[in-house]
Specification:
This protein is an alpha+beta fold. It has a five-stranded antiparallel β-sheet with strand order 4-3-2-1-7, with helices on one face. The longest helix has 10 residues. The radius of gyration is 13 Å and the shape is globular.
Length: 95
Amino acid sequence: MKYLLCCSAGNTVGIDEYVSYSEIDEEGYWCRYLEINANGRALRYSTDRAADKFGVLPEGKWDEAEGSKSEYGVGCHISRELFDAAWQSVRCING
């Protein structure tokens, strides 16, 4: 598994500000995704709950080269422990 923390701050493509935590499997697909928007609204998705009226689990494969482009903001690899702490502690409007 790969664990990522991404922040859209400083992006140059007009993405709304957010911070996200991603769990990505060995094949590059998202397993769990947590997004916290600038307005404080947090959303959580997993393979068990891939979509709802607010959004969806990211589709397709994670592309390290594409995701590392500074035009989207900044990102870094994090530990599973940090990901799990965020996953368990952040209150989300969608459960």
